[in-house]
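Predict the assembly for these two chains.
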Amino acid sequence: MERKKLGLIINPIAGLGGSVGLKGTDGVSEEAIHRGAIPRAEERTQRALTELLANKNQVIVYTGPGSLGGRIAKQMGFPYVVDGALSDGHTTGKTTQDLVRWLQQQDVDLVLFAGGDGTARDIYAAAKASTVFLGIPAGVKIHSPVYAVNPSAAGALANLYLTGKVTKTSEQEVVDIDENQYRHDIINTKLYGYLTIPMEHAYTQNRKCASPPSEATAMETIAARVVDDMEPDTYYLIGAGTTTRAIMQELGLAHTLIGVDIVCNKKLVAKDVYGKQIMQYIRGKKAKLVVTITGGQGFLFGRGNQQLTPEVIKKVGKDNLIILATKDKLFQLRGQPLLVDTGNAELDQKLSGFYRIICSYYETAVGKVATN
Amino acid sequence: MEMKRIDRSQKVRVGFHEAKWDEAIIYELSKPGERGILVPKADKKVVDAVGNGVSMLPKGLRRKQAVNLPELSQNHVLRHYMRLSQETLGADVNIEIGQGTCTMKYSPKINEQLARGIFDLHPEQDPSTAQGIMEIFHETDKYMQEISGMSRFTFQPGGGSQGLFTMGSIVKAYMNSKGETRDEFITTIYSHPSDAAAPALKGYKIIYLQPDPKTGVPDLEAFKAVCTERTAGFIQANPEDTGLYNSNIAKFVKYAHKMGALCCYDQANGNAVLGVARAKEAGFDMCHFNLHKTFSTPHGCGGPACGATGVRAGLEEFLPAPLIDFDGKKYFFNYKFENKKFGVHKVRAYYGVAPVVLKTYCWIRSLGPNGLYQVTKTAVLNNNYMFKKMLEIPGISAFYITDDNQRVEQCRYTMEKIYKDTGVSTTDIQRRMMDFGMHYWTSHHPFFLPEPITLEPTESPSKEDIDEYVNTLKYVFKECYDNPEYVKSAPHSSTTHQVDESVMDDPKKWATSWKVYLRKYK
C-alpha cells in the first residue's frame, strides 16, 4: 500500500513567552530564554505523533532538520525525509515559510505544524489552498481554529485523515492578536486568511434525525438566497469571509477572501476596497452591506474587516445590513451576541439590537448584536 | 468445594457482551426447493368443481415470474429471526435512560396482549362491524382533549413529525381561508428539527430563536423583533430538549396572537407536564402528542406510532378527515365537519394506527387522572435526582444553571472538559456505553452545545436503575483519563465492533437494497 506523506513543522520557540509572563513570543524569544523558559513545542509534537505510531510504517514524515521536526521523527522511529536546504539553529518565520513551500513541492497529504497564532500566520503566508494543514497547539496565543483542542487530538485527527477515515475538510480562520497591544491588555485580533484543515467531526447517521448538510452546502444555499434577493442598481459591499465568498462564487466573480468587494447588478464593480474608496462608490447610491462573523471571537465589525470604516457603515445604515452565518459558525457562539467594535462608540450602540441572520436559503436565526 | 454466594457487589456491568451470530442475510440462507409449509393438494372433487386455484385469479393479477422470496424451512426462519433479535439492544433488556427526548418508559405488556385482539380488523371493513375500536378512538379523543384543553383530536398522523406537519398544514389551511399570504414561521433552536422542517414543507421561511446564553430559553424581546404581520405561526417544544421550561411561554403566545399568528405546541416532551400544564391555558391554538412516547405505546424504532394532534374550538374544520363521532346510536366516520375548500383533508391513509390508539386508551385508563399526574411527578423527580448525581461526576456539567431554574423531565449535559482533557468525544462515549448494554444519546445536529449528552429517565426506572446508569457513566468517564484509547476504539462487547464510517460520505459505496448489493459487490 502506498505510504502517506506527512509534512511536519515544529516552531521550536513556540510557547516560550507565555510560561515566563511575556504574553507571546514574537520578538522576545531571547528574553524568554533569559527568564528561564523551556521550549515545549517538541514535547507537544511528540504527544501528537504518538497517535500515529500504530501506523508508523504507512507514513513517511517530511520535515526540517533537528528541532524543526527531524529530531523527533527520528527519535520516534518514523521513516523521514529532511529538507536539506534548511539548517537547524536560529529559525524565523521565513524558515517556516520555506519549509511549507518545500513540503508542498513534495506533495504531502497533510502538514502537521506545532506553534501558535504567529506560526499559523507564517504557514498561511506560504500555503496553497489545496494543501491540508492541522495545528498542534504549542504556542501562547491559540485563537485560530486551525488548531486542534490539544496535541493528542491533533495526532488522532491526523491519523484519521491519513488513513482515509476522515475525508472532509473545511477552511478555518487564521487570526492573530497584536502582541504589543496584548501586553497592554488590549485585545485586537486581525484576520489573516484561511487554511484548509480536516473536519473533526464527520456527521454520521443519527437514528433520530437526518444528517444535516455540509458546511460548504450551507454556504451555497446562503449565497443563493442573497443573490436571488439582490435588488437592481444597488451596491452590495461583500465583506471578508468564506461565507461571503460563496456569494462571489455563485455570481462567478473574482473575490478577495479577506477584503471587501463591491457588486452591482450582479457584476463586479471594485475589488479589495477600503474606507474612502468604498465611499466614492456608494455616496448618493443605494447600498447594502453583506457581512459574516470573523475574527475568531464572534465579531461582526472590528476584527478582520476594518476596511468597513464607521463612515461606510453609517452610510449603509443598520437596516441595510445583511448578516450571514452557517449554523455551525453561529452555534459556536452558543447564543452569545455578535460583537461590534467599529471604533465609534455611538455607532456601536446604534448597531446593537436583534437581527435576522441568514443561515440557509429559507432559514434565518435571530441573533443579538452588542458591544460586549 | 465450598459454595459461596455469587458476588453482586460490582455496580457496573463489566461482564456484559452482546450476542454475536454473524448471521447472514436471509437471502443468503435460501436453498432452492426448501419449504416451510407444504400446501396439500386439493381434493379431486374440489378441483373438478372450481378448477385450479390459480385459474380463479383474474389474469391481470397473476404473476408472470416466480416470486423472489427466500426458500427456508420453518426452523431455519425461526432460528434466523431469533438470532437477529438477540443482536439488538432493545428497551426490554436495557435501562433505557440514555435515549434522551425519546421518553423510553415501560410499555405494559398487558396492553400489547390486548392490542393483539384487534389485529384482524381492517380499516375498510363496514363500520357496523368495528364499533368497538371506533368507540376506543372516540373515547381516547376525549381523554386527549381533557389532558390538553383542546377541542378535538385526530389520530391520523403516523408519528411525531407527521403531527408537526399536520399542525403546519392546519396553519396554512387557516391562513388560506382568511386570504392571508403570510410566509414566515418561528421556532427555536432546541425544538426538534421537524418543528422547522414541517412548516418548511408547507412553503414557510423559518426563523429560529436562539436560547438566551444565561437562561437557556428564548428571549421574549428577540421573539418580538421577528414576529410580524408576516408570521403565520409559532411552534415550540416546551420544555425543550435541554429540560428547561420557558415560563414566559404564555407571553410569547399572546404576542404572536397580537400579530395575527397561530401558535402550535410541540408536546413531544409531554411527559413533563401531564396534569401540570395544558396547551389551552398557555393560549396555544393546537398541540400534538407522541402517543408512542408519552403514552407508552411504545417508541417502536420507526413505528408504528401516532402524533395525535388537537386543535382549539374554531379550528376543527381544518383537521384531517375523517373524525370518528357518535350520533347517539352508533359510531361513524364523520366527513361533514371538514372545510371542503381549505381543510387539510388527509395527511395519511385512514384514521390512525388502531393498536397504538388502543394501547394509549388502556394506559390512560389504567392510570386515571391522578396516575397521569404521578407519572409526571415521578419523571421529574427521577430526572432531578439524576441531575444531581450527574453533576457530581468530575468533568460533567450542564449549561444554563441559574438560581431559580431547574430541569424538568430530561437534561442536556456537556462533557466538554473531559473532551478537552482527553480527546474522548461524546460520540466515543455513545459507543462505549454499548459495552455495558446501555444506550446514550448526544443531541440533534448540528450540536448547539459542545460534546452534549441528553438523558431522560422517565418515571419507569427505580433509584437503583438510575444509580446503575450513572455509575456506569462514571466508570466510563474515568476510563477517558485512565485509558482513552480503549474508549475511543469502543465498542468491544457489542455485536459489531467499530464501523468504518468514512463510507457514509461516499455514495458510490452505498448499496441501498439487496439487489443493488448483489450487482455492485461480486
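The radius of gyration of chain B is 26 Å. The longest helix of chain B spans residues 354-391.
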